[in-house]
Design brief:
The structure is a single chain. The chain is elongated. Helices cover 15% and strands 32% of the residues. Strands 22, 23, 24, 25, 26, 27 and 28 form a seven-stranded antiparallel beta sheet that branches. A six-stranded antiparallel beta barrel has the order 8-9-10-13-12-11. It has a six-stranded antiparallel β-barrel with strand order 2-3-4-7-6-5. The longest helix is centred in the middle third of the chain and has 14 residues, at 266-279. It has helices at 23-26, 41-47, 82-89, 127-130, 266-279, 296-301, 343-352, 415-421, 440-443, 463-475, and strands spanning 5-6, 51-60, 106-118, 122-126, 135-139, 145-154, 159-163, 186-191, 199-210, 220-223, 235-237, 243-250, 261-265, 285-286, 289-293, 310-315, 331-335, 338-339, 358-365, 368-375, 377-378, 403-405, 408-412, 430-435, 451-455, 458-459, 480-486, 492-498. It has ten helices and 28 strands. By secondary structure, it is an alpha+beta fold. β22 and β23 (408-412) form a beta hairpin.
Length: 500
Amino acid sequence: MTAARPALSRRLRMMGAAVSIGAASMLSSVPAFARGPESIADTAEKVIDAVVNISTSQTIEANKGSGAMPQLPPGSPFEEFFDDFFKNRRGPPGKGGDKSGEFQPRKTNSLGSGFIVDTAGIVVTNNHVIADADEINVILNDGTKIKAELVGVDKKTDLAVLKFKPPKPLVAVKFGDSDKIRLGDWVVAIGNPFSLGGTVTAGIVSAKNRDISQGPYDSYIQTDAAINRGNSGGPLFNLEGEVIGVNTLIISPTGGSIGLGFAVPSKTVAGVVDQLQKFGELRRGWLGVRIQQVTDEIADSLNIKPARGALVAGVDDKGPAKPAGIEPGDVVVKFDGKDVKDPKDLSRIVADTAVGKEVDVVIIRKGNEETRKVTLGRLEDTDKVQQVNAKSKDDTAEKPVTQKALGLDLAALSKDLRTKYKIKDSVKGVVVTGVDSNSDAAEKRLSAGDVIVEVAQEAVASAADIKKRVDQLKKDGKKSVLLLVSNGDGELRFVALGVQ
């Protein structure tokens, strides 16, 4: 419900910059085009009537007796008025409160930005601009205010689509191809910073495919065009007047622009908008695997050079990958003809692929490339709750016979150990009962209660099996060994440990 919110709240330390004495004399030799376009007036004039302000209101219910503040989203332009806001809402009987001096329900307002993509009255903005709003209004560039309806939202990309009845002919803008933009390309941001409306700023594309850990599909365009609170949901244009991003986040220690703004790329936005208009919700593709990063150590263990792809750590028994023959330990390097550099790549590509489509998935298994055909399912939009495997401190059971390897104390799974570490009967392998605090295993966060299922992609049933496999790998000159590790609930992950 707010404007462009600070993505990170930490204070940034000014590092300073050294400028050489000769720098000033060099300016005259810099080509004119290096200083940017002569003017962006034509671009701004062409698109500004398609940029709108988004005004929302929300009723905050009283929380009698607690004095709790309403939870406005971070970055709200009204944050600075919190103290006065509450002083005005609470007071002695007959002066702002009820007879007992308690809070009364009040309306709060917020402002953001958006843009028209269809002259029928379709508007794109950020989800956080309109989240929890009781009423949403679109304000055109000439000041006309119209009530809008919510078509749909996608929280994972922070996008929303609105619809309103046009009171007159509208100007709409088109999406450009965000994949074609290059570092250093000039871009124009238009929005409603600090409720000023119709504000135009310009800058360059500072970075592409930026992952700032805000969501599962992070791939932001970074720009130094000035973006402030109130710009959220507004468009980022190329010089042709095409939308190549939706301004969503800023990094700032103060809440104002310091040249670190982030926009959702138009390639993502266009797909989301299309689905929200058609279905009112997102229907993302689902492969049915759990994946993890291919580290240099894991790549060495799997004979993959260079390190790349997404390592399959687990396969859902009811997912599309299972019947296609994809297994834990496979590394996905290409999906539907697109290269997969890391797990984030795979997540984004799968999510953007149509449900029900049959695709080729290229995997590396034991050093060899194979292609599997998979018919994608639909990702259910629910957050899976991860249960932490609680470790029992009950040491009354008989002490197990253990053997050491890789800095680990290892023992065969028994009924007592399953009970002690809450390990499901379906989990097979060798249980870790202790970890040397100075070992590589400790650094990789292995702990008592973990179960080693495979060593170098071969199943193990005893500590002796593990020691035998590790000794052989040492003789073969391997620097690391790849373990498939399960927690008590059966969730798998791969861990590479040094053996030399």
